[in-house]
Input
Amino acid sequence: MSAVQLEVLAPGAYASLQDGGRRGYRRIGVPWAGVLDTRLMRIANVLVGNAEGAPVIECFDGGLLLAARGGPLRLAVAGDAVLEIERGGERSALAPWRSLTLGDGELLRLRRMSGGRIAVVAVEGLVLTPVLGSVSTYARAGLGGLDGPLAGRALTTGMLLPAQAARADGERMLPLPPQVDEGPIRVVPGPQADHFSAAAFATLLGEEYRVSAEADRMGLRLEGPALEHAGAREIVSDATVPGAIQVPGNGQPIVLLADAQTAGGYPKIATVIGADLGRLAALRPGQVLRFATVTAGEGEHLARAAEAGTRALLAGVRPLAADGIDLAALQAANLVSGVVHALAAEYRPLTAAADQAAAPTPPEPR
Output
């Protein structure tokens, strides 16, 4: 057992150990599991100095509280989280999208999410034993996570995660976090498109759906106009994948996520493309979404574009300045917009031409 450990003082709403997933076993009924948003995993790991696919803690909303035990530990948080660090009884706010070092006995608290519902915490040198090639926790089958009697369980109060002591090099940060895509969730029709009427597709693509309270790592149940079946409301069970949109007899769609079953008997009207699956999984209950259709070829192009965007983000990771302020990032961003000239007759954005036109006319000399 490692002398340096990370203690879970509170797991929050739901926290678990994940990585890229348990690939290659769906044919025998073992789901992928793994993080819901691989981009967050990769960013957090690069920030802390791990390999991109190293194990991480995935958590939802807020309430996660962690403490370093036995020595300094380096962590990094990816996601729009409101963080707090406690040192010597003093609490201070901390920005996400960066790494940090916790001294022995110091605490990191994820208070809440300011955007989305998923955050990922990477721990430098987290030591875990893979099961079927992955440490990902799949609680329904007791796979992954920690060894022994705690195997396959989500994180609980008192769990100790073995890691390595923090190195002496400095902290890192992501200067400009990923931009949130507010567009529709894109889908490829099928694989059981012929089980639905034309009206069902018009409804799926033309109406809004709301994420219900039944939303977890297995899937999202959506609420909205019912999707009309064109025949039998069930099929002979066949393969499913994360992103598949099943439609049970009540016509309310269910989008499958990482922990979903490997086969099912509800027809699937469409499948969410991989490039959009992470942001779909981050939607909170009550949030509204719309769908748009793309071809399989367009989905592949969007996947390549998303990967290029992620690699650009990772290439932008840089050392954190000693004072914690990245002036280059601040100066590269448009921090103020909508400025108006107080003397202008009509308020409008301030430009050099507008400034000159709005300036008062100097008095004539006497």
